[in-house]
Amino acid sequence: MTDTEKMLSDIDDNLDQAIAKLLDLIAIPSISSDPENAADIRRAAEWLFHELSLIGFESEIIETAGHPVVLARSGRTGKAGRLLFYGHYDVQPVGDREQWSHAPFSPELVEEDGKKRFYGRGASDSKSQLWSFIEALRAWKAVNGDFPTEIVILLEGEEESGSASLPAFIDAYREALACDVAFICDAEMWSPTEPAITTRLKGLVHERVTVATPNPDLHSGLFGAVAANPIRILGSILSGLHDDTGRITIEGFYDGVEDIPPGLRTDWQELSRQTALFDEVDRAGGIIEEGYTALEAMWGRPTVDINGITGGNQGPGERSVLPATATARLSFRLAPGQDPDRVRKRFRSHVEARVPQGCSVSFHGEGGSSAVALSEDSPHLAAASRGLEIEWQKPTRLIGSGGAIPLVQLFNDMLGAECVVIGFILSGDAIHAPDEHYDVERVRRGARSWVHILKELEKLQKSAAAKA
Amino acid sequence: MTDTEKMLSDIDDNLDQAIAKLLDLIAIPSISSDPENAADIRRAAEWLFHELSLIGFESEIIETAGHPVVLARSGRTGKAGRLLFYGHYDVQPVGDREQWSHAPFSPELVEEDGKKRFYGRGASDSKSQLWSFIEALRAWKAVNGDFPTEIVILLEGEEESGSASLPAFIDAYREALACDVAFICDAEMWSPTEPAITTRLKGLVHERVTVATPNPDLHSGLFGAVAANPIRILGSILSGLHDDTGRITIEGFYDGVEDIPPGLRTDWQELSRQTALFDEVDRAGGIIEEGYTALEAMWGRPTVDINGITGGNQGPGERSVLPATATARLSFRLAPGQDPDRVRKRFRSHVEARVPQGCSVSFHGEGGSSAVALSEDSPHLAAASRGLEIEWQKPTRLIGSGGAIPLVQLFNDMLGAECVVIGFILSGDAIHAPDEHYDVERVRRGARSWVHILKELEKLQKSAAAKA
User: Could you tell me the pLDDT band of residue A368, with boundaries at 50, 70 and 90?
Assistant: First the structure.
């Protein structure tokens, strides 16, 4: 038995225990955007601190202006090279609980479609992701007595709410975080049987906009015929954000947007043809920018989404109210070349120009992230790609994502570190939605994938050392 | 001292006690649209039952399929003629409590602008209205030992939530409710110094519409570029309900609408010129149907209002969700000639035709009321008008209202009773809005007005009897 075979066996043998622990972690409602869950966030950080300490990491819980970061270090191993693993332990809010048919924070194993599944907020995004690489490192240490090289693990608690504290943290810990390559473990596979590495991530700008009339709430029967209705005004602005070709109408929105490189377009068009993604997600009623395939629009073109709207009567019964205000929440997904601040400014000007005189508009939002285009031909990426192919026995696809991982941009910009984005999330996992779920087999194969990736990286380092 | 002077003095002398009791009534949160307040509704009904019994009425609390009705009868007085007084003791929901600077259900007297005011939900709409005529009847009985004629008082508990149980109630109590004239005491004055009788009321149709995509909630970053957004779809439908001239675009919406009679148009155009209404309510950003003055649009033209909208993220933080559904609540205010069911049907067809294929729409709502045009030259109306003029020393205006009082239509249709709609609400009272309020002086003058009106009716009956 090779040491790799031993590690894979160890992962298989330890699976029940690994899953039991993972379910404990998912049971902690570590929602980062709701102040009511601050204690849960801390509990999750402490839980991870404890588990990382158990397998031999020197762990710390580091305070930030927001939620704490868990930072774990293997210490010097005597081998050249330092790897960084990034994951996040915070989760999205639950949303409408009525839409869940499983409790969001009481995961248990369920047999479904021949799979052992578990449901829960964070089950896929991203607790199973971080747990898979921790489990691989545990097995490596158990079999080899040490880690393959020096390893730093950074677990964030604010990814789902904008990573506001991350820049200051990275700035303060530049030295501890410096690495040869950073693995960002919060991404998708290409299909349930095909691995992927994500090399293109969109930028993200969240914005909240409130339209206010000059009046307080009024009786709509009395004044509806003459006084401004903020819901109508807001609805009109929102419905005008796209033209008939699916292009965004905000002046200057596309300024600086870089075209998707021709080679990548060809690959993505090919993937668009073979994807089974739209067996699960129906595009009826959606507006795709004219001239682009679905995957090009999702991975390479800037978009605006309306994530929420609220105005007037929210109660159980009817109410003849003409509300004073209406609020919408939007998010912009940026392509390379777009600047978050400029997009925000352009949007605000667009709205201001469309609010009738006498009414007013206010905005809430700041910061944001730019899109990232990662290297597609580095030795680290090639090694990771090979590792994935050994486990899955299928080619590793280079894909994009409509999602943002602010950290990737920060690592790129602040540390100059090469980033490789890998994960095992599937589009059917219902992440950010009711009944988010994951399955036992993917935890197992995810952990095994990381063993293979680490092994390929070890080979790479050895051959580099031999050449030197 | 005439008996009228005695009654007016009695009202003045009893004012402190009358106000103290009224504040007790306002303190009961009798919100009819929220099932959580069912016990409060009952408490308010019992409170009124008790007060009406105290002044000599035979009172009953009558169960309905919804909230109870309080029915009080003076019994036979030996005099010809029976009068009915209608009021409602239920109130609108509070809405956003944060927008109130006074507690909505803890009224107390406040000195402001030289007036003794009290704040509370229902302070103006409509607890002070019903209390003013009860106080007048109390004074009449106290001074004269009996009521001017046989009197029936009907106090409803569902006016603010659609009066669903009223038709069945009226049907079951036709005999008890039969009357020569019904006074509907839930309406506005023309100005703080000028009385009014409302002869035109709009019809009302409430409708809730939910647009659903074929998907569950999705991650907006991943799928926003291609999958349907129900908020965008709904926003687009809502913003298209009016054209540039303020006309409603629903096909057939104006079918059968009766023109405002030319004489009334002239009067309303004159009132439009002199009204101070828009010193308080700003029309900036509103859309008034082209070709009509503000009061004509408010009182005589059909409209549609958006009363509420909800979709996607409602939480404190940002969330990249592409929601599965979005819901809006609308109300249609109908002009004479429009049928509520037909308007509802036309609206539903309009929306269905605009929801993209693959998405779906569902509706919630039923019933509704037609507009009412009351007689403008009956002897009862003339007597009431004179009574108001004696108290206010200003001409009584015949006005319209954008509001609906379903009972007026029901009384017209089911009992064939003549209705006279009188009240002392002012547009600045913030009814249906935060910080609803009323003032002591208006309670006093309202009660005095009713004494004068009853006196004029007594004269009318005497002269009719003399002629017979």
Answer: confident
Residues of B in contact with A219 (CB under 8 A): 402-403, 431-433
Nearest to B93 among A220, A307, A315 (CB): A315
Looking at the fold, whether A150 and A255 belong to one and the same domain comes out as no
The CATH number of whichever domain residue B14 belongs to comes to 3.40.630.10
- Say yes or no for a CB contact (<8 Å) between B318 and A329: yes
Query: Are A47 and A163 found together in one domain?
Result: yes
pTM score, whole prediction: 0.84
Distance from CA of B135 to the nearest CA of A (A): 27
Q: At A80, is the pLDDT very low, low, confident or very high (cuts 50, 70, 90)?
A: confident
Which of B353, B266, B57, B219 has the alpha carbon at shortest distance from A426?
B219
- Which of A206, A288, A356 is closest, CB to CB, to B226? A288
Give the residue on B whose Cα is nearest the Cα of A92.
B319
How many structural domains are present in chain B? 2
A50-59, B10-19, B36-45, B92-101, range with the lowest pLDDT: B92-101
Do the chains contact at B312 and A307, CB–CB below 8 Å? yes
Residue A145 sits in the same domain as residue A81:
yes
Residue A410 is assigned to a structural domain of this protein: yes
Considering the domain boundaries, does residue B278 fall inside one? no
* B273 occurs within a structural domain: no
Query: Is B272 domain-assigned?
Result: no
> Nearest by CB to B225, which of A220, A284, A298?
A298
B392 shares a domain with B318 = no
Contacts of A33 in chain B (CB under 8 A): 315-319
> Residue A433: phi, psi to the nearest 5?
-135, 170
Residue type, A43: R
Q: Which of B33, B311, B316 sits opposite A33 (nearest CB)?
A: B316
Contacts of B355 in chain A (CB under 8 A): 285
Residues A69 and A179 in one domain: yes
For residue A264, pLDDT over 70 is answered with yes
Asked if residue B268 has pLDDT above 90, the reply is: yes
C-alpha to C-alpha distance for A54 and A17, rounded to whole angstroms: 14
Using the beta-carbon criterion (under 8 Å), do A321 and B33 form an inter-chain contact? no
If asked whether residues A47 and A184 sit together in one domain, one would say yes
Domain around B222: 203-254+302-364
Interface probe for B, chosen from A205, A366, A432, A436 (most Cβ of B below 10 Å), is: A432
A404-444 pLDDT, tens digit each? 887 888 888 888 889 999 999 998 899 988 999 999 999 99
Preferred mutation among A278, A290, A307, A408 to probe B, highest tally of B CBs within 10 A:
A307
Q: What are phi and psi of A24, to 5 degrees?
A: -60, -40
Q: Residue B95: which of A313, A209, A280 has the closest Cα? A: A313
Q: Is the pLDDT of residue B77 over 70?
A: no
Dmax over Cα atoms in chain B, in whole Å? 85
What is the SS3 assignment for B139-180?
HHHHHHCCCCCEEEEEEECCHHHCCCCHHHHHHHCHHHHCCC
Secondary element (H or E) of residue A401 = strand A397-401
| pLDDT bracket for residue B201 (50, 70, 90) | very high
Per-residue pLDDT tens digits for A346-363: 999 999 999 999 999 999
Count of pairs with CB atoms under 8 A, one residue in A, one in B: 361
3-state secondary structure at position B201: strand
* CATH code (residue A348): 3.30.70.360
Q: Could you tell me the CA-to-CA distances from B429 to A126, A280, B119, B145, B320 in Å, in that order?
A: 53, 53, 9, 35, 41
